[in-house]
Amino acid sequence: MKTHPLVIACLAIALSAPAGAVENVESALRTNGSETLNAFEPAREVLQLNSAVVMQDRSQLGFGVVVSADGMVLTKASEIEGKSGLSLRIGEEIYEDAKVIGVDPAWDVALLKVKAEGLTPVRWAKDSNLAQGTWVVANGSTSRARRRAMVGIISANSREIAGGPAVVLGISLGTGDNDLRIEEVAKEGGATEAGLKKGDILVSFTGTKLKNREHLLEMLKSHSPGEKVPLTYKRKGKVIKTEITLMARKEVAAEPVSRNDEMSGLISERRTSFKRVIQHDIPGNTESMGGPLLTLDGECVGMNIARANRVETFVIPMEELQEITQRLGQAAPK
Questions:
Q1: Is 142 in contact with 162 (CB distance < 8 Å)?
Q2: Residue pair 148/44 in contact by the 8 Å Cβ criterion
Q3: β strands within 194-311, DSSP E
Q4: Rounded distance, CA 269 to CA 285, Å?
Q5: Which of 206, 263, 267 is nearest to 231 (CA)?
Q6: d(CA 113, CA 39)
Q7: By the 8 A CB rule, do 27 and 53 touch?
Q8: What pLDDT, on the 0 to 100 scale, is given for residue 254?
Q9: What is the edge-to-edge ordering of all strands in the sheet holding 208-209?
Q10: Could you say which of 44, 262, 265, 279 has the lowest number of CB atoms within 10 Å?
Q11: Cα separation values, 263 from 104, 167, 168, 215, 271, Å
């Protein structure tokens, strides 16, 4: 197999380092040291053109992937949720008044649109099937005008990341697998507003008769926070129909923090419930999510979607990303 010129350059840098233990290698010669990153300047120039910095009042919220010449950009939805006055820096230009065209809650992806012409969209790779150990490039920290490249490798095979639904009803059910009796109702939120009380028994959700707890959880996965949906329940034998506003899981209870999480720094709130992800080991934090993951040839294989811990970053593969772009893009103004 032919070795990529950038890899050869990095090997040359490594071999030029003084002999001795790894910890004695100068910082500039390490994986994301300045000398090593100089070898990846062509990939940095690609990031400069086809990644965007997503900002609010000039403060960085994350990165984005430029997917059209006329100003459509994908980014991580939960990082911009509830934010107004968004702008994008693409190349060295700042584009004000970025509009949210659409959101895919299942993938945590939002499509933004700015008034622009002649942008450079990402060049899609043939597929996202990269072997473990393959070198990849992503956005690191950024200055006012320049993107910075960070390098690493694919560290796991593509796979599903399981997890609960992104939305909840704001209630606690009985402990049995088939028990749909309400044991507790959150003090604030959709369940209280809908009039649900302890002891009520859930019957149907969105018009579909509920079989058990797992059936309800599976149905919740296809809905978004803030949606109002029909709900039927029983109270003292009487069937009652109502409408309930779904809540984001984080509004009800925070996920438990492990020791690994505590050591990982800024990790993503949403880092589970993805049908398929690629995984790499490039260092990052919440502000570095949303940008493209590139091969050494500058081709996009996906979008960074979640910093899971100090050694794992998840990426939406390009195949799914292209489908999301096409679907959300149908709502974009012409």
A1: no
A2: yes
A3: 201-205, 208-209, 228-235, 238-245, 247-248, 274-280, 292-294, 300-309
A4: 11
A5: 206
A6: 33
A7: no
A8: 45
A9: 208-209, 201-205, 228-235, 238-245
A10: 262
A11: 30, 27, 29, 36, 16
CB atoms within 10 A of CB 332: 16
pLDDT value, residue 225: 78
User: Which of these ranges, 37-51, 240-254, 312-326, has the smallest mean pLDDT?
Assistant: 240-254
What digits encode the pLDDT tens for the residues 296-316?
999 999 999 999 888 899 999
Task: Dihedral sign for Cα 209, 214, 216, 219, please.
Answer: negative
Tokens in use for 130?
A: 């990269």
Question: What are the b/e assignments for 80-103, b being 16+ CB within 10 Å?
Answer: beeeeebbbbbbeeebeebebbbb
Neighbours of 35 (CB within 10 A): 17
Helix (H) or strand (E) holding 71: none
Q: Which of 286, 282, 273, 276 is nearest to 313 (CA)?
A: 282
Tokens at 206, concatenated: 């969105």
Question: Which domains does the chain possess?
Answer: 1-39 (no CATH), 40-161+270-329 (2.40.10.120), 167-252 (2.30.42.10)
317 Cβ neighbours under 8 A, 6+ residues apart:
128, 158, 276, 277, 278, 301, 302
- Contact criterion met (CB below 8 Å) for 98 and 87: yes
- What letter would DSSP give residue 254? P
HSE toward the beta carbon, residue 200, CA cutoff 13 A = 22
Q: Record the tokens describing residue 224, joined without a space.
A: 């978004």
What phi, psi does 218 have (nearest 5°)?
A: -65, -40
pTM of the model: 0.73
Mean pLDDT taken over the chain = 85
